[in-house]
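Researcher: I'd like a candidate sequence for this fold, 111 residues long. If you have to choose between options at a position, lean toward the conservative one.
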């Protein structure tokens, strides 16, 4: 199983917001938050096809997500905020009310 290291950013998306109105337990919300975006260059370098499941691992936890090609710079990954992202980011907000959710080192494992 190949592994590579990237920088993780998380954030909100329009589809996630629309799906939230259906509820966090809805299939629409799970589909809107259950993926990771990677640049075409990185995807081709790893030899992985879109739609394949990958395991992401940070010092805070891990998640298995569907890989999608996205408009992100090489070396960076994007995961929409939601249940999967929450397992990858810190729980401690350091008094700010918002946990560290950008710039985290993340390993990608092809599964």
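Model: Candidate sequence:
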């Amino acid at each position: 199983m190949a592994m590579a290291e990237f920088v993780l950013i998380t954030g909100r998306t329009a589809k996630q917001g629309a799906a939230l109105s259906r509820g966090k337990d809805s299939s629409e919300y799970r589909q809107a938050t259950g993926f990771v975006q990677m640049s075409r260059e990185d995807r081709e370098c790893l030899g992985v096809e879109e739609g394949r499941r990958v395991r992401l691992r940070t010092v805070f936890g891990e998640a298995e997500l569907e890989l999608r090609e996205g408009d992100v710079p090489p070396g960076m990954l994007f995961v929409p905020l939601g249940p999967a992202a929450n397992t990858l980011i810190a729980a401690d907000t350091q008094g700010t009310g918002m946990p560290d959710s950008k710039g985290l080192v993340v390993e990608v494992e092809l599964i």
